[in-house]
Amino acid sequence: THAVFSEVFYGRKRWFLTPPAARPPFDPHATSYVWFHAGLSQNVTGLLDCTLGEGQVLYIPSQWWHSTLNVGDTVFISTFL
Fold first, then answer.
1. How far is Cα 49 from Cα 65, in angstroms, rounded to an integer?
2. What was the pLDDT predicted at 24?
3. What gap in Å lies between CA 9 and CA 32, rounded to an integer?
4. How many whole angstroms separate alpha carbon 27 and alpha carbon 31?
5. How many helices (H) and strands (E) does the chain have?
6. Burial class (CB in 10 A: 0-12, 13-18, 19+), 56
7. What is the structure's pLDDT at 45?
8. Cα separation of 76 and 81, whole Å?
9. DSSP 63-81
10. What is the pairing mode between strands 57-60 and 48-52?
11. Residues in contact with 39: Cβ distance below 8 Å, sequence separation at least 6, in sequence order
12. Three-state DSSP class for residue 14
């Protein structure tokens, strides 16, 4: 996998991140919204939770797990390195 830069141009985006060794529970058929509201994020070791606003940029290192939730209407772009 690749490292990523993600920038929010409009609105807000919430990010959930874990290092490579802390693989979170994952259901490929569930959305991030379902994953978060089912409480699965509460028992993840090493989980980092942050919300980006307009003009903010997040760097995600290679091989880190991530999930996102838009907080209202959101426009963003990700650049893979």
1. 12
2. 78
3. 21
4. 8
5. 1, 4
6. middle
7. 77
8. 16
9. T-EEEEEEEEEEEEEEEE-
10. unpaired
11. none
12. strand
Cβ atoms 75, 12 nearer than 8 A: no
Q: State pLDDT tens for residues 2-56.
A: 899 999 999 999 998 989 988 877 777 888 888 777 766 677 778 899 999 999 9
Q: Angle 63-40-61 (CA atoms, 0-180°, nearest 5)?
A: 15
Tokens coding 1: 């996998």
3-state secondary structure of 15: strand
Report whether pLDDT(69) > 70: yes
The two three-digit tokens of residue 79, written as one number = 């650049």
Quick one: tokens of 40? 């699965």
Distance between CA atoms of 2 and 69, rounded to whole angstroms? 21
CA angle 34–39–44, rounded 5-degree value: 110
